[in-house]
Design a protein that fits this description.
Blueprint: E1 11-18, E2 21-29, E3 34-36, E4 39-40, H1 47-62, E5 69-76, H2 80-100, H3 107-116
Parallel strand pairs: 3-5
Antiparallel strand pairs: 1-2, 2-5, 3-4
């Protein structure tokens, strides 16, 4: 059963990052709709990206934590799968904060997300390694042929 929200809480803003993709999620009172860049989450293509983005939503629905909240996500930068990872982190963080009420976070929902996949609540710190001199990339070097 979802906890009562304090009267002062109008919306919750959270963000998620992966590589250079940044997603900002706003959770407010509503009917359980989730939209990404003003499109419903259920029409994201390709299907693999849609399934991955729906994971935090399905867990929250199973625990009856999404029925009274609408989630609006704006995402930019990065590639397709980087954006999807940023989206799922932003949605999960937003729902944990929204369902927590006045005392902070929803511990039960947070524990379920951590049990499923830690990256739902924690940003992935990995970044692209910069190119170095004497080579075409981060690790590849120009061949020497003087021997």
């Amino acid at each position: 059963m979802a906890k009562k929200k304090p009267k002062g809480k109008i919306s919750v803003n959270m963000s998620g990052k992966r590589k250079t993709a940044v997603a900002r999620a706003t959770v407010r009172k509503g009917k359980g709709r989730v939209r990404i860049n003003s499109k419903p989450i259920h029409i994201i293509e390709p299907e693999l990206a849609r399934r991955k983005a729906l994971e935090p939503v399905q867990i929250a629905e199973a625990m009856n934590r999404l029925a009274d909240a609408d989630v609006v996500v704006e995402v930019q930068g990065g590639g397709q799968m980087g954006q999807v990872d940023a989206i799922r982190t932003a949605i999960a963080r937003g729902l944990v904060k929204w369902n927590g009420g006045a005392e902070g976070d929803d511990e039960e929902l947070r524990d379920e997300y951590l049990r499923f996949d830690r990256s739902l609540l924690v940003n992935d710190p990995r970044r692209k390694e910069p190119k170095h001199q004497m080579g075409r990339g981060a690790r590849k070097k120009w061949q020497k042929s003087y021997r």
